[in-house]
Every structure is written in structure tokens, then in C-alpha cells.
Specification:
The protein is of the alpha+beta class. The protein has seven helices and 18 strands.
Length: 337
Amino acid sequence: MEEELFEHFRLEVDPGQAPMRIDRYMSTHMEGTSRSRVQQALKEGYVRVDEQIVKANYVVRPGDVIRFVMPYRRRGLEIIPQQIPLDIVYEDDDVLVINKSAGMVVHPGHGHYEGTLVNALSYHLGISQDADAEDERMGVLVHRIDKDTSGLLAVAKNEAAQLKLAKQFFDHSIDRRYVAIVWGDVKDDEGTIEGNIARDPSDRLRFKAYDDETVGKRAVTHYRVLERFGFVTLVECKLETGRTHQIRVHMSSIGHPIFNDERYGGNEIRKGTIYSKYRQFIANCFEICPRQALHAKTLGFEHPVTGKWLQFDSEIPQDMTNLLAKWRKYCIQMPQE
């Protein structure tokens, strides 16, 4: 998620450098980056000199150390427009909000060069891209959710909107709330999980929570219980940060992996009885919701142009709704078994 959306840069001004505006200096020392993009980054507060935020008219001096982050601009893949239905929740000249279905990959990549959300956006906006294109106007995702997670995503339709929206994610001012069905009866009605997240050294496809603050990236998840079913719990998770697999990793780290999350052990019976009838019930549940039971339900942010706060809420998808209904029925029947 978040840490993969920003590139970190460091420029050290040469001892013989003549005085020069920082926007001009940065654009001449960064390949493939326009001066307007640099100026927008400066305007949004992405750029620091000796740890102080500077604006475009700052004059660089020999020995200055410039540190800054920029939202990624993905290159190297041809984007093929494909007519794929999109559930568009909101759209204007600058922003799109999409309710992504489970199973849809967000970005083209290894094994997924077609059928992705970006391919669908390319068609929707009427713009294609070859592998070395300079223009990414078909839509710039400023965050992402996993393939088998459903829910709301914000898309910037131009570069200025991307930089402004990305800054809100960087500053943790976005309102992001998910609903998840997790294994076990969560003890507290609400709580906060803190634990740095980094790749699991024993499995590069997984991430892991660490108590050591020197490992990985800081991650904070706030949760509250919405409904209890004895062996599983429906929770709302509010993201303070946005690391890769954050909710999946954090809930697993406290012994409550997301139901049917194969990567983090949620696709096995973690709580319940040993009886065959219960095992069959769980197998039926896995069939009803054949993916991790996680949905990005709520998304709120400040519009990058108007400054107006936009708040969106989506319905829990049918597979999770059916799963909840099955657990409610099971809880009613449990005392008679």
C-alpha cells in the first residue's frame, strides 16, 4: 500500500553549483520529470532542504541536501484499453471513486497484463499507453487494495489531483474504514494494534508485524467489534497508516486472522469444535465466500481542487453478506445442537 506508492529521493547540491531556483534545479537533475510536476510537488510540501519544507522559489546553495518523495509514475508496460464494467460511485473532472469487486487486480504486472482495473480505466477515459509513454492520464491510483479485497478506491484523473490526493494519504488524513470477518471471539469491544510491518523473511509473499521499531514501517490499525458469532467476529478496522496487507497482518498478529485468508492462515479452522458437522459448516462457509472476508467500506478525503470533504460508503458485497447470514443462523441453532 502506502510505502509502495512513493519514491524517496535524495539530491546533494555540488560545491561549485551556482545559485538556482530549486524547481529548476530538481527538474534538470531528475530524468523524465517535468518542471510542472516538480513545482506541484513543492507546492504540496513534498520537498525538504535540511529537513525544512521549501517552496519553488527557494534558491539552492552548495552543500544543500534535498530530500523528497514523489508518487510513483509506473512505466514499462503497455496499457491496453479493455471494456470492463466499473462500479463508479463518483466522478468529476479530477477524481473517480470506484467500488472494486473482489478478484480484480488493480495494476498490470507479472501474470496479470490484462483484465485489471487500470485496463478498465484506460477504456473508460478513452486513453491508451504504450510501454514508454510519458502520459499517464488514464487514471492514477493513489492507493490500492488487494486483488481479493473488495471496496472503494480513489483515482486521480490528472497529475495535479494525484499529487494533492497522494499527500493526504502521506499525511494520514484520509478516512479509510474496512469491515472484516475474523476468526475467534475478539476480547475487547475496541482497540488499537500497533506493530511495524515488513516482509516475512521466511515467505516473500507474506508480511509480518514486528515489535522492533527499527524493522519495517510504522503501522497502526484501530478496530471495533460490530457483531459477535462466538467462533468468528465482524469488526470494523480504521486505518491510521496504509501498509501492504496491513489489516490482514495486524489481525493475524493478535490471533484473529481474517476468515478464509489463505496467505495468513485464515483458510483453516481456527476456532470451534472438532465435530464433522461443524467442519462441513465451515467448508460451506469457505465456498460461500471463497476469498478473504475483507471489504473497504468507507472512504473520505478532501477534494483536490475544491477542498470540499467527500465521504463515500459502500454496501457489504453479497458473498460477505451471505456469509454473515449463515453465521447468524448457525448461532441461533447452536444451543439445540
